[in-house]
Design goal:
By secondary structure, this protein is an all-alpha fold. It is 93% helix and 0% strand. It is built from 2 helices and no strands.
Length: 76
């Protein structure tokens, strides 16, 4: 019986010391991934808007209007 209690106590100590930092690391990685995804999305949107504006000023015609619509659709 004493050995069982000792074993349970050892398991609880291990969980306390290892599981908490591991969970925190996992949460940090998730948070960093969300932030990276958000920044990438904002950068892509900004770059596609810039591309669309410069493209429309340098090219003319019906195909340009279609290309602008496509870029707009993809960036939204």
């Amino acid at each position: 019986m004493l050995n069982e209690l000792r074993k349970k106590l050892e398991k609880q100590i291990i969980r306390l010391c290892v599981a908490s930092p591991s969970h925190a690391t996992s949460q940090n990685r998730k948070s960093m991934t969300r932030e990276t995804k958000k920044r990438s999305y904002e950068t892509l949107k900004k770059e596609s808007t810039s591309y669309k504006e410069s493209f429309s000023s340098s090219a003319k015609g019906q195909w340009v209007d279609e290309a602008k619509k496509t870029v707009q659709t993809l960036s939204d």
